[in-house]
Design goal:
This protein is of the alpha/beta class. Helix content is 31%, strand content 25%. Helix 4 packs across helix 5.
Length: 328
């Protein structure tokens, strides 16, 4: 089969290889998926760049955890009725070397949920990390109906979906954005208010937008950088659910301050989510796709031959939406 892989760490053009390798077979409990699309996320580019030094100890790595395709074969113990099923994949390159940037992937059947006909393969490629992360951030600590949720970076890959999950569940949503275009996008997704996180003391704007009351929860894209402002606008007993802290990667916590606020700090990564949370997310994703409830934003689509460009795009940033590699 045709695939992309890396055998050494480094920049995309220096490390990514495109060629032919053996097609995998479906083992017990697995399905063999003919891939149509592969989603690219920051975690994929960081792995390729050497964030996990032992990653290559077992041999070459085919990158990317997310993707979508059609089941062509099943292993022992898997219902043969699944052959021909459209599916989306997650965790394809977690705890294993062979991800979705290839014509075929053999993966545990539970990591290949059904992709409703209403959803394209491109959409299927962005469900794993962006959509499941957003779901976990919004729902990990209980029902949000009637609550006010702050989504920082509402126009980002995860924030984009967090706004939609929270509104669907009956929450009031305040998003942050740094320009008029992103503000309008957040409003179009259902945000009730948008404040500019580049403004000084933007937390006061959040409280004002909430009628003078502090917020219940935060879905946080830059935990370390935004924490001082968040502490000024979150209520006692509130929840901060964060999935990233790039600007300040090792934040120092004002422990006493946060303790006396009785705050819950929720650190979110899809790979470590409880299995029950993954299944809850999958069920809700199936519902919103079947009913065509959500908006999706694919910013760039490239071919497998141009996988280098896909990694360069993610690393350069400066755009909204997801990056998808078309395998066909």
């Amino acid at each position: 089969m045709k695939a992309a892989w890396f055998e050494s760490f480094g920049k995309p053009a220096d490390s990514l290889i495109i060629g032919e390798i053996d097609t995998p077979t479906a083992g017990p409990g697995e399905v063999l998926v003919r891939m149509h699309t592969s989603g690219v996320n920051p975690s994929d580019t960081k792995k390729r760049d050497g964030a996990f030094p032992n990653l290559l100890d077992g041999g070459l790595v085919i990158p990317h955890s997310d993707g979508a395709g059609i089941i062509e074969a099943v292993g022992e113990g898997v219902d043969t009725g699944r052959i021909g099923e459209r599916v989306w994949l997650y965790q394809a390159q977690f705890g294993r070397r062979l991800g979705t940037a290839a014509q075929y992937v053999a993966i545990d059947a539970s990591r290949a949920p059904k992709l409703p006909e209403q959803a394209s393969f491109a959409v299927g490629a962005v469900l794993g990390i962006p959509v499941m992360t957003a779901h976990r951030c919004v729902f990990a600590d209980g029902d949000v109906k009637g609550q006010t949720i702050l989504v920082t970076g509402g126009a980002g890959r995860v924030g984009y979906y967090a706004i939609q999950w929270a509104k669907r569940a009956g929450a009031t949503v305040i998003a942050t954005a740094s320009n008029d275009a992103d503000k309008e996008l957040c409003l179009s997704l259902g945000a009730d208010h948008v404040v500019n996180h580049r403004s000084e003391n933007w937390s006061a704007d959040v409280v004002t937008a909430n009628g003078g009351d502090k917020i219940d929860r935060v879905v946080e894209v830059e935990f370390g950088q935004n924490l001082p402002e968040v502490l000024n606008c979150i209520r006692v007993g509130g929840v901060i659910a964060t999935y990233s802290s790039v600007v300040v990667p090792e934040p120092q916590l004002p422990f006493k301050h946060m303790m006396f606020m009785d705050l819950t700090l929720r650190l979110v990564i899809v790979y470590a989510m409880p299995e029950s949370a993954k299944q809850d997310a999958i069920a809700d994703i199936d519902a919103v796709l079947t009913n065509d409830e959500f908006s999706h934003r694919i910013a760039h689509e490239v071919s497998l031959d141009d996988i280098v460009k896909s990694h360069e795009l993610i690393e350069a940033g400066g755009f909204g939406g997801c990056v998808v590699v078309n395998i066909d």
